[in-house]
DNA sequence: CTAACTTGTCATGTC
DNA sequence: CTGACATGACAAGTT
């Protein structure tokens, strides 16, 4: 038994450690300006539930009393397991689950999207992240959604270990590792499943349509169906025509400000980023993609080669660069991200392709990465207000077919930055497909694509559905006071002071004592009828009433705080119940029967609740036999222990409820952090696109001494630390890129 | 009737 | 050492 206890305690300790680990992980908050009170509470342990209750007391289930005490040898273990499973589930984004469920809902032939529908309810329930889903097909669906969920998360890089039994050190380590993967959302994936993505898109769309009240994306149908136009649009044929003559620099400090027609903005003011992938995918309904551009566009998304760590590091590099490079960019583009109709930027862009948009007021500074620093305050709490210059040309992702995606963003090398030869029209005629993608290493398209998918899921799916679900849970939970401030001591408040009944001392303490025993009640039955009715009630009243209130306190802990008063009231009520002495008899506890049998001259209530001094004083007032004194002591002991047991059980319940609430808080925080991360990545992607387009713009306008455009295969733009952009031979750029690539790795070592 | 749940009680340990 | 308290375990009662 001792070993088992130890084992269970260790398990719970591990659980605590796990929570702490999660807390550490989500310390992303420290620079996301977010707060995680629950985590801190868990880690620092201010919760009275934790301080009052030892973890090895955790028994039964989150639902309350779940396991029979006789199985106590296992229930601790299973409780820990259950909690661990929930915590582990935190590591898995649950949005996809919701999406899947929602998808099923909308397949309902009735077409009604009612939250009361079982499937919908299931979806909501699943979205909550809690696994206590009930209802028909729950098991199957749960497994299905779970599976799909894991799948999704694997795609997202946030892979949680399968919920298994024991929590081992390896488990914790694995969770930690997986969390890192999660952080590096989507990184390191070499394969991206089109069909899967398509499914997600469908789900997203369903969520969009259904959950958000048929808020369809206007034009997504027609506009997206113009993939062929995209090619033209992407080529930016208009660029060369607008190119202002040829600058003759080979190592050119591009201080010039490219002023391009505003009308050429690819996405327009109302383009919404999140929809782009969706539309893109819709345009590619299956793996049998339409030939041409879309394939090309998507291809770079499938070539993520960066390891999560690289990505993370590069992201940090990006951030530092962005902070260093102050650039002025029109901040009015918030609309692009937020005020846009659900129009699909990419699709819109495709449809508008013939009029390939070009930035207006875009200086070459803006072409540099640093230029985005001011625009994209990624760590702003309001990421969504991310200012993407309305004039900025958010060109759709173009395939660079780059094999060297390892250039860090920190690299000043813009060589081959998103240079899409096929798409860049005349300016890119010479662009080779082998051009490296400086940004690719930082945030490869595959990852961004995944992020977008996840973003969609979270934005449309989770935010509206799961968040509401969480809210519901919380609200419903609010009905249950988890306030651990309810001091158990309130139960043991001195009741004796209020006891109005100083029970008449039925001085007949004669024969009873002789027959006293633990079963003394046997001899009582005959005597009881002679007892003063008031005495009987007085002696009997307390316990039943008290028990009632204690029971109430279990159901609603908030009532516990007023127990001291209720206790008295209830006690007095017993006197009003006088008419039925038999009832009182029935409600009498064994000790009360014994007390009556022994003709104890005061109530059990006093015996139990009087302070020691008063209690001894009371005893001294009476001439009590040894048997009576023993019984009184036993009554006091048992009475106190009873209250202690009630308090103990209440604490257990409170602890469980607190843990449940904390788990919910953690889930909520995790969802929020993931949402924020997705938003960051999305803005990063937009930035990348912007840089890409600007690169194309700049490079396409460069002319050599002979007025001919530079070949992208031979030259590349390099971003210098001082903000200038240089045109350098590609070989040199590649060397520098490689050098930059090694640095972070060395640093990591 | 059984199983699950509730409650009281005891033993034991801690403070 | 004693009293109060906490809690695991068990048993009896209740649902």
TrEMBL record:
<feature type="compositionally biased region" description="Low complexity">
    <location>
        <begin position="477"/>
        <end position="521"/>
    </location>
</feature>
<dbReference type="Pfam" id="PF03131">
    <property type="entry name" value="bZIP_Maf"/>
</dbReference>
<keyword id="KW-0153">Cholesterol metabolism</keyword>
<feature type="region of interest" description="Disordered">
    <location>
        <begin position="474"/>
        <end position="530"/>
    </location>
</feature>
<dbReference type="InterPro" id="IPR047167">
    <property type="entry name" value="NFE2-like"/>
</dbReference>
<keyword id="KW-0175">Coiled coil</keyword>
<keyword id="KW-0472">Membrane</keyword>
<dbReference type="InterPro" id="IPR004826">
    <property type="entry name" value="bZIP_Maf"/>
</dbReference>
<keyword id="KW-1207">Sterol metabolism</keyword>
<comment type="similarity">
    <text>Belongs to the bZIP family. CNC subfamily.</text>
</comment>
<feature type="coiled-coil region">
    <location>
        <begin position="649"/>
        <end position="690"/>
    </location>
</feature>
<protein>
    <recommendedName>
        <fullName>Endoplasmic reticulum membrane sensor NFE2L1</fullName>
    </recommendedName>
</protein>
<dbReference type="InterPro" id="IPR008917">
    <property type="entry name" value="TF_DNA-bd_sf"/>
</dbReference>
<keyword id="KW-0256">Endoplasmic reticulum</keyword>
<keyword id="KW-0446">Lipid-binding</keyword>
<keyword id="KW-0443">Lipid metabolism</keyword>
<keyword id="KW-0325">Glycoprotein</keyword>
<keyword id="KW-0678">Repressor</keyword>
<keyword id="KW-0539">Nucleus</keyword>
<feature type="domain" description="BZIP">
    <location>
        <begin position="631"/>
        <end position="694"/>
    </location>
</feature>
<keyword id="KW-0812">Transmembrane</keyword>
<keyword id="KW-0805">Transcription regulation</keyword>
<keyword id="KW-0735">Signal-anchor</keyword>
<keyword id="KW-0238">DNA-binding</keyword>
<keyword id="KW-0804">Transcription</keyword>
<keyword id="KW-1133">Transmembrane helix</keyword>
<feature type="compositionally biased region" description="Low complexity">
    <location>
        <begin position="116"/>
        <end position="131"/>
    </location>
</feature>
<feature type="region of interest" description="Disordered">
    <location>
        <begin position="108"/>
        <end position="164"/>
    </location>
</feature>
<keyword id="KW-0010">Activator</keyword>
<keyword id="KW-0753">Steroid metabolism</keyword>
<dbReference type="InterPro" id="IPR004827">
    <property type="entry name" value="bZIP"/>
</dbReference>
């Amino acid at each position: 038994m001792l070993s088992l206890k130890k084992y269970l305690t260790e398990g719970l300790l591990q659980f605590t450690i796990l929570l702490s680990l999660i807390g550490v992980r989500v310390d992303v908050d420290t620079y996301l300006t977010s707060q995680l009170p629950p985590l801190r509470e868990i880690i620092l342990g201010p919760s009275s539930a934790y301080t009052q209750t030892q973890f090895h007391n955790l028994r039964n289930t989150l639902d309350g009393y779940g396991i029979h005490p006789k199985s106590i040898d296992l229930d601790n273990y299973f409780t820990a397991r259950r909690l661990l499973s929930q915590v582990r589930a935190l590591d898995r984004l649950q949005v996809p689950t919701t999406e899947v469920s929602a998808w099923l809902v909308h397949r309902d032939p009735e077409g009604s999207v009612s939250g009361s529908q079982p499937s919908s309810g299931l979806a909501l329930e699943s979205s909550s992240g809690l696994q206590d889903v009930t209802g028909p097909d729950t098991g199957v669906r749960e497994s299905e959604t779970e599976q799909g969920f894991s799948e999704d998360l694997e795609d997202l890089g946030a892979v949680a270990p399968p919920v298994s039994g024991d929590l081992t050190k390896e488990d914790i380590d694995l969770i930690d590792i997986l969390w890192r993967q999660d952080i590096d959302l989507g990184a390191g994936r070499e394969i991206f499943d089109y069909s899967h993505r398509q499914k997600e898109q469908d789900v997203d769309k369903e969520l969009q349509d259904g959950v958000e009240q048929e808020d369809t994306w206007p034009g997504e149908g027609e506009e997206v169906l113009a993939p062929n136009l995209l090619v033209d649009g992407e080529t930016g044929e208009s660029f060369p025509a607008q190119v202002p003559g040829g600058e003759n620099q080979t190592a050119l400090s591009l201080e010039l400000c490219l002023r391009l027609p505003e009308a050429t903005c690819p996405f327009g003011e109302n383009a919404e980023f999140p929809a782009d992938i969706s539309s893109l995918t819709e345009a590619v309904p299956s793996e049998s993609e339409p030939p041409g551009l879309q394939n090309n566009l998507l291809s770079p998304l499938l070539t993520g080669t960066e390891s999560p760590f690289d990505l993370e590091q590069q992201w940090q590099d990006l951030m530092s660069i962005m902070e260093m490079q102050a650039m002025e960019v029109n901040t009015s583009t918030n609309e692009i991200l937020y005020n846009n109709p659900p129009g699909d930027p990419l699709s819109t862009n495709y449809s508008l392709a013939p009029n390939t948009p070009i930035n207006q007021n875009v200086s070459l500074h803006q072409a540099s990465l640093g230029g985005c620093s001011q625009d994209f305050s990624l760590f702003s709490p309001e990421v969504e207000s991310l200012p993407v210059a309305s004039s900025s040309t958010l060109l759709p992702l173009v395939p660079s077919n780059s094999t060297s995606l390892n250039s860090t963003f920190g690299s000043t090398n813009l060589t081959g930055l998103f240079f899409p030869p096929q798409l860049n029209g005349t300016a890119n005629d010479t662009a080779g497909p082998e051009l490296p993608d400086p940004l690719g290493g930082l945030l490869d398209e595959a990852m961004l694509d995944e992020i977008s998918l996840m973003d969609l899921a979270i934005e449309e799916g989770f935010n509206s559905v799961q968040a509401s679900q969480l809210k519901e849970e919380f609200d419903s939970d609010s009905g249950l006071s988890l306030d651990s401030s309810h001091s158990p001591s309130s139960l043991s408040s001195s009741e004796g002071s209020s006891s109005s009944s100083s029970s008449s001392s039925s001085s007949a303490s004669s024969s009873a004592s002789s027959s006293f025993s633990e079963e003394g009640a046997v001899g009582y039955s005959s005597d009881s009828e002679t007892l003063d009715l008031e005495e009987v009630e007085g002696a009997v009243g307390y316990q039943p009433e008290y028990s009632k209130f204690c029971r109430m306190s279990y159901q609603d802990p908030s009532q516990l705080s007023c127990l001291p008063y209720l206790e008295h009231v209830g006690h007095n009520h017993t006197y009003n119940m006088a008419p039925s002495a038999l009832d009182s008899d029935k409600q009498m506890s064994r000790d009360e029967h014994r007390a009556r049998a022994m003709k104890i001259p005061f109530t059990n209530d006093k015996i139990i609740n009087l302070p020691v001094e008063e209690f001894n004083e009371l005893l001294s007032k009476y001439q009590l036999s040894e048997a009576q004194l023993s019984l009184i002591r036993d009554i006091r002991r048992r009475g106190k222990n009873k209250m202690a047991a009630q308090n103990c059980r209440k604490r257990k319940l409170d602890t469980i409820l607190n843990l449940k609430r904390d788990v919910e808080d953690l889930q909520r925080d995790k969802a929020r952090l993931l949402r924020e991360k997705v938003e960051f990545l999305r803005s990063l992607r937009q930035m990348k696109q912007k840089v890409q387009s600007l690169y194309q713009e700049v490079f396409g306008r460069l002319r050599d001494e002979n007025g001919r455009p530079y070949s992208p295969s031979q030259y590349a733009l390099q971003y210098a630390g001082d903000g200038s952009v240089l045109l350098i031979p590609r070989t040199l750029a590649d060397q520098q890129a490689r050098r930059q690539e090694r640095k972070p790795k060395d640093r990591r070592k």
